[in-house]
Amino acid sequence: MKQVSVAFTPTRVNIDKYLERLMNIGKLGTGFTSTIEESEISDLVGECLQSFQRQPMMIECAPPVTIVGDIHGLFGDVMRIFNNVGFPPDVNYLFLGDYIDRGQFSIETILLLMCIKMKYAENFILLRGNHETKLINRIYGFYDDLNKRFGTPRLYEDFTKMFEMMPLTALVGKRILCMHGGLSADLMNAPKLDILNTFARPLHDPPNPSLAIDILWSDPDVNTKGFKANIRGCSCTFGPDVVAQTCDKFGLDLIVRAHQVVQDGYEFFANRKLVTLFSAPHYCGQFDNAAAVMQVNPNMVCSFKILRPEFPGRAAPSHQKSATTILLPPTI
Q: Where is the chain membrane-spanning (predicted)?
């Protein structure tokens, strides 16, 4: 992944001005709907759609890169990640999807990430998650949030068209495969990894079963051998044997995925051949989980930055720092 400091300026959207207003939201007189109009959001969505359309469905990038799991509308925690790890374009980022729903600031969060994507296209990769489908975001908050703020479903349809153009997977240093959900029998049986570039755009909500639905939805399960039906009612679960076979077949060292809450923000599976990342701390206000991001250095050595949940008026235990870095042995 190249380090790019020259900004790409869209034809109709002043990205710098847009970012300035987003960063000031919360101050007196800077409410979202009073500073950013529906037409401006529609223009930005249209520009970002074209940016996604120019990318392959499997993006190949080189380290260094920081990989981020589910965010779910936690605008403040996205900023916390940037403050602890570094801001684009000084740090390259790869996000694994689920930017919206659940949290209170879905619109602000996705717009912030879209603006950074437009400004530093080569440094900032956004993959599609299962919440970037109508099947899910029509129910879990995004549709209602847009309707409540703007009184129309027009923007929802614009976002839907953009989500349908987003890439599904990324390959870091040709050895780390990244996606939102997980593995698929269709992938394991494919002759080449290039099958991940064969999806036609726009990719509407994919059928169940399919390779695309598995990439967005499937889960690892230590008690599964091969593939089994998923208790989510969508896609499948896969066992450690599937991870090992997939890595061996395609010359991969690690699978990185998101999609599930894990207590420490990251959790290994299948003899450290797969890791789940979750980057939304204190998820839904119901869990005390930490968040984590995974940093891959130029030598493909991986480490995790753990961000503990912060509760107003409550001090963290003395043995817990709000941000901790854990370095892995250089096994990959």
A: none
What whole-number distance in Å separates Cα of residue 288 and Cα of residue 284? 10
The order of strands in the sheet holding 323-327 is: 124-126, 93-95, 65-68, 291-296, 302-307, 323-327
Among 72, 131, 180, 259, the active-site one is 131
Are 50 and 114 within 8 A, CB to CB?
Answer: no
DSSP state of 209: S
Per the annotation, the verdict on 319 as an active-site residue is no
Token match 């953009």: residue? 162
Which residues 6+ apart lie within 8 Å of 263 measured at CB?
289, 290
pTM for the whole thing? Answer: 0.92
Distance CA 274, CA 276 (A): 7
In contact, 158 and 127? CB cutoff 8 Å: no
Helix, strand or coil, per DSSP, at residue 194 = helix
Query: For 2-36, how does the pLDDT look when each residue is reduced to its tens digit (9 = 90+)?
Result: 544 434 444 578 899 889 888 887 676 666 666 78
